[in-house]
UniProtKB/TrEMBL annotation:
UniProt xrefs under Gene3D superfamilies: Plant lipid-transfer and hydrophobic proteins (1.10.110.10)
InterPro entries: Bifun_inhib/LTP/seed_sf, Bifunc_inhib/LTP/seed_store, Plant_nsLTP
Protein name in UniProt: Bifunctional inhibitor/plant lipid transfer protein/seed storage helical domain-containing protein
PANTHER family: NON-SPECIFIC LIPID-TRANSFER PROTEIN 2-RELATED
Segments forming domain Bifunctional inhibitor/plant lipid transfer protein/seed storage helical: 12-81
Species for this entry: Zingiber officinale (Ginger)
Pfam families documented for this protein: Tryp_alpha_amyl
Length: 93
């Protein structure tokens, strides 16, 4: 998992949902979120993704933190941490 992978997930596949342009996450977005969950089995990987996500979020105009946080639920994915631009990545288990 790299920051480029995270960019693809949030910055491309899910950008319309997390910016409020779409009411629901698309199937493509949800497939990317499922892939993210499957590829982050360790604390180190989850923290890496978190840091990448925070960096990518600063590049997305009009990102809505509440929609980012709702993304796993929209896609029926259980993550061990909350998606948020404000999260302390070091606190992720």
């Amino acid at each position: 998992m790299t920051c480029a992978d995270v960019r693809k997930i949030v910055g491309t596949s899910c950008v319309n949902y997390v910016t409020g342009k779409e009411a629901h996450a698309s199937p493509t977005c949800c497939a990317a979120v499922h892939d993210l969950q499957a590829r982050t089995p360790t604390t180190a990987m989850r923290r890496l993704v978190c840091n990448c996500l925070k960096t990518e979020a600063t590049r997305i105009k009009n990102i809505q933190d509440q929609l980012l946080a709702a993304l796993p639920g929209q896609c029926a994915v259980s993550l061990s941490f909350r998606l948020s631009v404000h999260i302390d990545c070091a606190s992720i288990p």
